[in-house]
Known about the structure:
Blueprint: E1 12-17, E2 32-39, H1 54-77, E3 82-84, H2 97-100, H3 128-140, E4 143-153, E5 166-175, E6 181-186, E7 206-209, E8 213-217, H4 226-234, E9 240-244, H5 256-267, E10 270-274, E11 286-289, E12 293-298, E13 306-313, H6 319-322, H7 325-347, E14 368-372, E15 375-382, E16 386-393, E17 396-404, E18 412-420, E19 427-435, E20 455-461, E21 468-474, E22 478-479, E23 484-488, E24 491-496, E25 503-511, H8 520-524
Parallel strand pairs: 2-3, 3-4, 8-9, 9-10
Antiparallel strand pairs: 1-12, 2-13, 4-5, 5-6, 7-8, 10-11, 11-12, 14-15, 15-18, 16-17, 17-20, 18-19, 19-25, 20-24, 21-22, 21-25, 23-24
Active site: 87, 187, 220
Organism: Callorhinchus milii
Protein name: Biotinidase
Amino acid sequence: MQRVGVRRLRLQVLFLFWPAMVMHPVVCGKEFYMAAVYEHKTVLNATAGSPPTRETALNHMRKNLDIYQHQVNTASKQGAQIIVFPEDGLYGFSFNRTTIYPYLEPIPDPAIVNWNPCLNPTKFNNTEVVHQLSCMARNSSIYLVVNMGDRQACAHGDPHCPPDGRYQFNTNVVFNDQGTLIAKYHKQNLFFEVAFNVPQQTEHIIFNTTFAGRFGILTCFDILFYDPAVSLIEKYGVNQLVFPTAWMNELPLLTAIQFQRAFATLFQINLLAANQHHPERNMTGSGIYTPSSSLYYHNMESSQGKLLVAKVPIISPNRVRNLGLPQLQMKRAFVKRIMMSVAKKARQKPNEPVTHSALPIPAPGSIFHGLMMHDNYTFVPVTDAKGNLQVCNNYLCCHLAYNRTNPTIDLYALGAFDGHHKGTGYYLQVCALVKCAGPDYNTCGEGVTSASNILDFTLWGNFSTQHVFPEILASEIKVYQPDSIKWEKDNFYMTKKTMSEGLVTAALYGRWYKRDIGSTRILNNFH
């Protein structure tokens, strides 16, 4: 994520519930399991710019492994059956291909090799960290998800082999409660990670547990792309994901907990997200999210990590009957809308407002443009106590019906963006109601963290993608779930009433994956 200035905030550890979805026991008659995530303040290497020896690298990683061991013990005592640690948690940041090498281990493929490193530590050389992690899982009888570095020698004649003769991967490893290595996933969508290679083929890795069935695996930047994040859900039927991340918060649309909650809401899944804790890098925000509840942590003041443990409902694998109905309704409405609107869009000019009986076309003087997270949005100001507004950008038109308190205190704006995100090439369609940083229009789109206006609102737009993530961010970085989301006629709707904190951002963050250009291979090689 791009870095932005975010002022320090008081800590947030919130456990929120929403109207419950129907959950059904699917594993040994149980309805719930206990999950843990740890937001880790990684012990960093003060000399990351120079290549260490293997022993120096091991000593560095052992400092973080000692913290992991303590958190595993604590989580296990609280009944946790699975624990997730963050991306880069064993060594930190700012490595290149050479300086990261002593930290890497040749991790075998558990789909090919059955190996319990704790019981057989000498089967593979240079796997000291894998061995320690295996014993950590075994001794505490817990499933363990850890991010680390993997190195694999190139096969003979490999035309894609790097010049140094090896692949280096940002990797998640999973151990079962006996210490057996059961899964390994290589991160697909790298974000300026020059130390690592992008896998030649996207990996869709799923592991089974004795307590909750199947989990899919993804890492950080992956969550913004179709593969593997969305395809694990839509093509492979995964209901829950483990998500190590090193996410730099970016207001007003992409703070960690904001998008984590939105992702779990749209797909009605369980998401176990563990972030780094480095406020000086804008890194904080972890959580355990279910379709109907959230336990999350956001703290820009503390210098310590944080363990979260929560009871998680087991979602029935029969998503179509039990959890898939809202999603199916959205898909059917989406397909119908696309078929009906192709001809209409062909006739419509970009930025031409869509006529709507309840929404007057804004006067030309009320429309303004501004940058929000590097993209050029079209805005209209939200100035009255209540009203109906619309704004268009290219072929996306966004609508807002609202009622708010204290309209004279804060300036808000309704923004629309339909285009490729600058610098990455992924395609966005976004409708966003944002609090402006000041009384001037040129502050709309800047990051703010506090608000006093309570708004009841319905936000909707004529999206061309079915993947629209509903986000609600309140004052002091608290997340809310919408009262409802739905497709109706030509639009995707989100409604929220009776919030207890002021609104910072309400957004429908649409990702039109098929219109992405370039690739993260290009992004990763950009300096």
